[in-house]
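Chapter review: from sequence to fold.
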Amino acid sequence: MFGKFTVAQRLALGFGLFFIMLLASVLIGLDRLAASDAVVDRIVAKDWQKTVLANDAIDLMNANARETFLLFLAQERAATRQRIAANVQAIDAKLGALGPLLYKPEGKARLAEARERRKAYVASFGEVARLLDEGRDAEASRRMSGETVPAMNLLLEAVGRLIKVQGQILEEAGKASHAAYATARNGLFLFLAFMAVAAVLLASWIIRAVTRPLGGEPDE
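The token string follows.
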């Protein structure tokens, strides 16, 4: 069938096929770029943000731990309590923003654990503050060292495990981004090799269509 094509038809078919292959290579490249962009967007919009929120929360918890000890030293405790209350609100906001971003069961479990640990710490701290208000400083000190500080350590460990999970997710996302790049690169190389072979075959086919009726090259 192809042997009956005229030179013009062969040229049109050859350039048409070449254009289709070029268009296909562009579409394949765009598809791979979209996949890579999705991975990067997940890293920037979710995974990295989760790590930042968790680290901010743990910094605020450490700040509150320092403020708690100041309660035993300050004569006027109102300012210290205001700073503690502000930190508590900020921690609530950080954990509240973190929750919707978690999409893996392990991350959700670590956040739930941190919230439970925080409840125990807040309850113990509230009792210490009450004892201080009543002037029972010695009893407050004993409760602080025997209950509040250990509860705080358990809370920090729980948040640390949450941060570790998010670090692992970031590492996995980085590997996925690299894999997406490698897949796109290899796919484009293969397709370009296919296009090169197809171009050579099409060129040979068209050249034969021109030279065969003449019996050779026009100069010859």
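Two observations follow directly from the output. The chain has four helices and no strands. The chain has a mean pLDDT of 79.
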